[in-house]
Amino acid sequence: MANVENSSNGFSKSTNQFTAGIIVIGDEILKGQTMDTNSAFLTKKLFHLGVKVKKISVVPDELNAISDEITAFSSKFNFVITSGGIGPTHDDLTFEGIAKAFDEKLYPHPEIINVCKKFFGTDDLKNPKLKIAYVPESAKLLFGYDKISQKDLQFPLVVIKNVYVFPGVPHLMEKSFQALEDHFRNPDGKSFNSTIYLDENEYSITHIINEANQKFGSNVALGSYPKFHNNYYKVCLTLESPSKDDLDNCMTFFLKKLQHCLVTDYDRDPILNASDKVYNICQRIVSHKFDAEFCEKLSNSLKILEKCFNSYKLDEICVGFNGGKDCTALLHLVYAVIIKTRGDVSELNCLYIRRGQPFPEVEHFIKKTVKKYNIKLHTVTGRIKDALISFKSVKPNFKAVIMGTRLTDPHSSHLQDFSPTDEGWPEYMRVHPILHWTYGELWSFIRNLSLPYCSLYDVGYSSLGSMENTHPNPSLQRTDSKGNISYNKAYTLTDFTFERSGRN
Ligand SMILES: Cc1cc2nc3c(=O)[nH]c(=O)nc-3n(C[C@H](O)[C@H](O)[C@H](O)COP(=O)(O)O)c2cc1C
Ligand SMILES: Nc1ncnc2c1ncn2[C@@H]1O[C@H](COP(=O)(O)OP(=O)(O)OP(=O)(O)O)[C@@H](O)[C@H]1O
Ligand SMILES: [Co+2]
Ligand SMILES: [K+]
Ligand SMILES: [Mg+2]
């Protein structure tokens, strides 16, 4: 008896004490109308997390049946996981059942009401959609984190004591569980993971995944996640196994079968340790991806930025950011330099001049980027010069604008690293860290670091103005055997003098 070590929650942390019971709730399953796949999913997942599932129970939508099972399970197992019965209709009784089991009342949880308001556009407690906000008094909320999309899930998981209430709809349940799986992980249980990124549609590799599942599925948990808005991959495969050998064998199988569409060296989080990653290129620590000439240019770009941040205070500097490729690379450099020299970027200012009819794709990208890099965006509408004039009068503190202009841009061949604005323009110091980069070097930097960029560059645009004056680049156009026209991606353009052929 002495080897049972109790932790503060009353449950032992030793491996064999990580137990779970699953309660599947719903008449439709007991009537054979729906096949329960949730318990199979959960059992497999929990097994790989080092949690022993001791019992699976299916109960009808009846208050007493639910509460009796909750009472029995919650005293026996570390985790009680329910699925189903949390919808808006009268037969959804999971929360009532749990409340009854613990002798609690239901009340509208303020935080869930907020989420409902965001989702359904209403916080009217009489609206049936708000039924989901009524939870037992001791309920706590867990917000999951989706590792694949790197986003917090919008809808919280409700936990009452040791009962975890999941939705019944399989894809929602699976998504929600995966986002919270670390919560259930047995720290003593070993698990090995790998991820593979593929540049191929999911349906054309399904047969390979199915084959792998037959061969390795009993020892390796496989996940396949299509991604629709990524510049680098279309499908992400995840492999997880308690055995390193099994994982390696499965990995070898995939690498062989999927050679043709493997995305190598994809960095899921380029912002993490961005500073080291960028500065290491100059030190030629990862030089195999870049030639010596570019490393020299990059090193110079960083020096220009360091000089800029030494010459001006942070609140005197703005980055000209319009969602284009050049300022996308530029912003990442600025970020790397600030992190290196100051440690955080919370006060970095960017200026977006909104002119003409902006592409929705561009503005979507700007929004995402602002959030990712945690920058402060100032948006001014109008023609560039007018916008700068009004920006100057509203925010007179700014003295320097860092820009992604390169020598090959129109009217730019005379520019220097630091060039004051021209006569007749509002007074700013224009700072040009990537002035000497070529189009090819720019893309090589973006792609090698896996930086996200505006989706238009993947559908034939190679330089972006506004909708009324920007088209896909004719030099990127291709025609298939049936005469259908499509466009290659911007980074494949070989003759850089055609960079602006889609602009008028
Ligand atoms: C902050 C800022 C300062 C600028 N200063 C000048 C300037 O001094 N002289 C000038 O002719 N154009 C200036 N421009 C305009 C740019 O040279 C260029 O025409 C503009 O960014 C549009 O580029 P695009 O045609 O490649 O989209 C400035 C633009 C910005 C955003
Ligand atoms: N509307 C704008 N708002 C803010 N900054 C701008 C704007 N237009 C241009 N700039 C600045 O001038 C630089 C050069 O503009 P340019 O259009 O050549 O580059 P880009 O927009 O980054 O990429 P692309 O060449 O593919 O359009 C930008 O990188 C940005 O720093
Ligand atoms: Co440009
Ligand atoms: K330009
Ligand atoms: Mg542009």
UniProtKB/TrEMBL annotation:
What GO terms describe the biological role, i.e. biological process, of this protein? FAD biosynthetic process
**Domain (MoaB/Mog): residue spans on this chain:** 21-187
Q: What would be an example GO MF term here?
A: FMN adenylyltransferase activity
Q: Does the keyword Nucleotide-binding apply?
A: yes
Q: Which family does it belong to?
A: In the C-terminal section; belongs to the PAPS reductase family. FAD1 subfamily.
Describe the function of this protein. Answer: Catalyzes the adenylation of flavin mononucleotide (FMN) to form flavin adenine dinucleotide (FAD) coenzyme.
| Protein's recorded name | FAD synthase
> Which lineage ranks, top first, belong to the organism behind this chain?
Eukaryota, Metazoa, Spiralia, Lophotrochozoa, Annelida
Gene it is expressed from = 20215275
